[in-house]
Design brief:
8 helices, alpha/beta, four-stranded antiparallel beta sheet, single chain, Rossmann fold, transmembrane transporter activity, globular, ATP binding, ATP hydrolysis activity, binds adenosine-5'-triphosphate, six-stranded mixed beta sheet, P-loop_NTPase, ABC_transporter-like_ATP-bd
Length: 226
């Protein structure tokens, strides 16, 4: 079964004349990397915010594991079902890497456990060692900050990771490292990774490339299973 299923999704911003999305349908499965491409203003970020449960579609349905997002507790869904990775990292720069993860777990009422130990372990998993984890974020490189951003997105063990231009601020080599991390989260850990991007390098690692144009989504490329 798909982790996420979009059926004839329509969306119009308040006061706008035209629908941004005009009947978008797509299936997203566990263990795969999806990229969504399309020209500026085509509705990619709008679609991500609907998938993230930040807004609800007016017509059509978005099913998470078979349940309509209109009927689930969206705070719970945002806290546990989905992790979001931002282009600009959106970390608290004055706090250490590990503090950023613990803070995020506190805000979304994570289950009681040793949050600090859990945060160090998560950071290690994304390639941030203990010394780096104890440094303030503003002292970290862009690539290190994005690793912390990914660890934060993973802190509630979500099924789905969504990212809007996650490598947009990084050099080519660091971009390749981050893409390797994101693809291994899909292929080795079964996450459904959905990335909006303009970068050809990012689309080159995708299992499935989807395009948005004129409010509709189409399949551009689907690689054979790896
Ligand atoms: N809050 C809003 N209110 C009204 N219109 C909006 C709002 N946010 C976005 N739009 C409009 O909706 C359309 C789709 O915007 P969206 O940000 O989803 O595009 P995008 O494909 O992500 O673009 P980009 O690649 O430039 O980030 C655009 O025409 C945009 O101007």
């Amino acid at each position: 079964m798909s982790v996420l299923s979009l059926n004839q999704v329509f969306y119009k911003y308040e006061g706008a004349k035209k629908n941004v999305l005009q009947g978008v349908s797509a299936e997203f499965e566990a263990g795969k990397v999806y990229t969504i491409v399309g020209k500026s203003g085509s509705g990619k970020s709008t679609m991500l915010s609907l998938i993230a449960g930040l807004d609800i579609c007016k017509n059509g349905t978005i099913l998470y594991r078979g349940t309509d997002l209109k009927t689930v507790d969206r705070d719970e869904y945002r806290a546990r079902g989905i992790g979001v990775i931002f282009q600009a990292y959106n970390l608290i720069t004055n706090a250490t890497a590990v503090e950023n993860i613990v803070l995020s777990m506190n805000i979304s009422r994570s289950p009681e456990r040793n949050k600090t130990a859990y945060a160090y372990a998560l950071l290690e998993k994304v390639g941030i060692d203990r010394d780096t984890a104890d440094r303030r974020v503003l002292k970290l490189s862009g690539g290190e900050q994005q690793r912390v951003g990914i660890a934060r997105a993973l802190s509630h063990d979500p099924d789905i990771l969504i990212a809007d231009e996650p490598t947009g601020n990084l050099d080519t080599e660091t971009e390749a490292d981050i893409l390797h991390l994101l693809t291994s989260l899909a292929h080795a850990q079964g996450k459904c990774v959905i990335i909006v991007t303009h970068s050809k390098k990012v689309t080159s690692v995708a299992d499935v490339i989807l395009g948005i144009s004129d409010g509709k989504m189409s399949l551009i490329k689907s690689q054979a299973a790896k």
